[in-house]
Amino acid sequence: MINEQIRDKEVRLIGADGEQIGIISAREAQRMANEKNLDLVKIAPQAKPPVCKIMDYGKYKFDAAKKEKEARKKQKTITVKEVRLSPNIQQNDLNTKLRNAQKFLQDGDKVKISVVFRGREMMHKDRGFEILDQATAQLKEFGEADGKPKLEGKSMGVLVSPK
């Protein structure tokens, strides 16, 4: 609430410089704000008596919006990158895929390593566990696995978070 919207009889007033003026009537506080060409803003309505401050409300709103925009700029969105492997992958191919996963982890992204089974490959689930264990062991210095490998339909996967 600002200016004439404040209907309380008495308010605790804080000046434009931040000094405590004390408990005065709302009309007197409004008059003081008008003398300085500023607004009277209720900042703590639940207090007894309510706390009001003399400030430039337009500038306050502008600064608050600016701070919020800066906070959104500094936010880092975490994305999940996926590296897909097969149960009969050769060692050199595995090393190439894990180098890509290493780059993703260094950039701060989470990596989902998944082994996709096709047809009769589902009979050799233990090969999938071996590959995922080997992959998480090679990526140990860049990230940690979030749990054990899980079988989800025709794929088995583990999520690796950066350190």
Compose a concise summary of this entry:
With 163 residues, the protein is of the alpha+beta class.
Written description of the protein model:
- This is Translation initiation factor IF-3.
- It comes from Candidatus Epulonipiscium fishelsonii.
- Keywords: Initiation factor, Protein biosynthesis.
- With 163 residues, the chain is α+β, with helices and mostly antiparallel strands.
- The strands form 2 sheets. Strands 5, 6, 7, 8 and 9 form a 5-stranded mixed sheet that branches. It has a 4-stranded mixed sheet with strand order 2-1-4-3.
- It is rod-shaped, with a radius of gyration of 31 Å.
- The longest helix is centred in the middle third of the chain and has 18 residues, at 57-74.
- The protein is 36% helix and 30% strand.
- It has helices at 26-35, 57-74, 91-106, 125-138; strands spanning 10-14, 20-25, 39-44, 51-55, 80-85, 110-116, 143-145, 150-152, 155-162.
- The mean pLDDT is 89.
- The protein is built from 4 helices and 9 strands.
- The protein starts with 9 loop residues before the first strand and ends with a strand.
- The protein has 2 domains: 3-62, Translation initiation factor 3 (IF-3), N-terminal domain (Ubiquitin-like (UB roll)), CATH 3.10.20.80; 80-162, Translation initiation factor 3 (IF-3), C-terminal domain (Translation Initiation Factor IF3, 2-Layer Sandwich), CATH 3.30.110.10.
As a percent range, the share of helical residues equals 25-40%
Strand content: 25-35%
Please give the alpha-carbon distance between the first and last residues. 47 Å
In the CATH scheme, the class of the largest domain would be Alpha Beta
The tally of strands reads 9
By CATH, the superfamily of the largest domain comes out as Translation initiation factor 3 (IF-3), C-terminal domain
Overall SS class: alpha+beta
Q: What name does CATH use for the topology of the largest domain?
A: Translation Initiation Factor IF3
Under the CATH scheme, which architecture of the largest domain would be assigned?
Answer: 2-Layer Sandwich
SSE run: EEHEEHEHEHEEE
Low-confidence stretches are none
The biggest sheet, with number of strands, parallel, antiparallel or mixed sense and barrel status, is: 5 strands, mixed
Computed over alpha carbons, the radius of gyration is: 31 Å
Number of domains: 2
Mean pLDDT: 89
Q: What general outline do the C-alpha atoms trace?
A: rod-shaped
Give me the number of helical elements.
Answer: 4
Keywords: Initiation factor, Protein biosynthesis
Protein name: Translation initiation factor IF-3
